[in-house]
Each structure stands twice: as structure tokens, then as C-alpha cells.
Amino acid sequence: MMLNAAVLVKYSMIPFFVIGGFILLVCFLFTFIPVPFMIFVGPTIAIMGMITG
Questions:
Q1: What is the distance, to the nearest Å, from the Cα of residue 30 to the centroid of all Cα atoms in its chain?
Q2: Residue 27: Cβ-neighbour burial (10 angstroms; 0-12, 13-18, 19+)
Q3: CA atoms of 5 and 33, how far apart (whole Å)
């Protein structure tokens, strides 16, 4: 019974990993927007997301 619950929890977390990866990708893409402060903001947000995630 515990194994079924663990499998359910494991597979229910997959969308969160995909969404989190997409958010990090968007933050890294912000680096290439030709606005000077985004060069620093994009990687900073992405790195903080990787650390907290």
C-alpha cells in the first residue's frame, strides 16, 4: 500500500518539474532581451530558482 502511494506522489510531481524547468528557461532567455538590467536579472532569478528548487 505504501508503495502505491509513493508511486502516485512521484508521478504527480512531474508537472511541477516541467513547469519549473520552463520558468528557468524563460529566465535564462530574459538574458538576451536588449534591456541592460535584464542581463543581470535573468540569470539571477534562474540561479535563485535552481537553489530554492
A1: 14
A2: buried
A3: 44
Grid cell in block for residue 22: 520552463
Q: How far apart are CA 19 and CA 3, in angstroms?
A: 26
C-alpha 4/C-alpha 14 separation (Å) is: 16
Structure confidence by residue, pLDDT tens digits, 1-53: 667 888 888 889 888 888 888 888 888 888 887 777 777 888 888 888 888 76
Q: By the 8 A CB rule, do 30 and 45 touch? A: yes
User: Which amino acid belongs to residue 43?
Assistant: P
The reported pTM is 0.62
